[in-house]
Amino acid sequence: MLRWQDDLYLPACSLYLDSRRPRPFCFVSHAHSDHLPQDGAHERVISTAQTLVLANHRLGKLSIAAPTAESVQSIDPDTRISLLPAGHVLGSAMIRVERPEGSLLYTGDFKLRPSLTVATAEPTPADILVMESTYGLSMFRFPPWQQTHARLVELVGAALAEGRQPIVLGYSLGKAQEIVRILTDNGLRVTCHGAVAAINEIYESLGTPLGAFRRYRPEDFHGPTSLDLAERGVLVAPPQVARSAFVNRFSSPLTILMSGWGMQKNARYRYGVDEVLPLSDHADFGELLELVERVSPRKVYTHHGYAEFAETLRARGIDAELARPEAQMRLF
Ligand SMILES: [Zn+2]
């Protein structure tokens, strides 16, 4: 039902899962670039409509007419395919495959916590679970999300009161939109870097409102026509700008990176920012364990992330291993 063929592959329906190479037929779980083909386009894909729009925006080359899950079913009457929300970024999905010999759930990237901008994940029980394990070490237990949101609003408010430019950093697809919603929901004025604003506009066109935000224009922030701090408000930008001229043009910026890696010691120094708050669009360690419990599989394959997580599961009596070539999968 599942094998490793340079990538995760379901031979029964000739379907690759999140391959980074162009394939004849591939499931694309979401539009982050590490889940998209790097040098060409898949011929046919299964994905949600939102993922297709976002992937086309990011790559400009995933230009395919996606078959729906229903049409895949009609290709093979023995295979039932369904997509379930993954709670990661807009459009992210898990794929569930049911065959006469059993069921399989592949998560892609996911989280179980609720989000302001993404539908909550809805995993279902399956015989085989193929899951990401990005934060698969016990040190990655995030504090309650309400606490992180409140701390962000507090830091931004304090910076504005001191006349410092707050700059909140998060990946331009997914994280940045969640940040924008936290800030606008709390009545803050928000300006977005162009890369973020472009994705914001797609989110809004797909029915996910983010509140009022302004697109960054250099003249609003620097020079004789610049707006005052209260009017331009907090800036939201991708993490890459942390050490760039974009940030260095401000005399006293306060940079805040929103990332699960903020649980690591010295994260501020590693990322070259003033603060790191643990806001993630991935499951933390507790959610990874919770997923396994909810899916209740006979077998778990971990993919992406810490190898130790498969060991953690085995220590708890769960049949688990890495989904990698040397672990040649033989299922059913
Ligand atoms: Zn992702």
From TrEMBL:
Organism: Humisphaera borealis
Pfam families: RMMBL
Residues in the signal sequence: none
Lineage: Bacteria, Pseudomonadati, Planctomycetota, Phycisphaerae, Tepidisphaerales
Name of the protein in question: Zn-dependent metallo-hydrolase RNA specificity domain-containing protein
Every Zn-dependent metallo-hydrolase RNA specificity domain range: 273-317
GO MF term (any one): RNA endonuclease activity
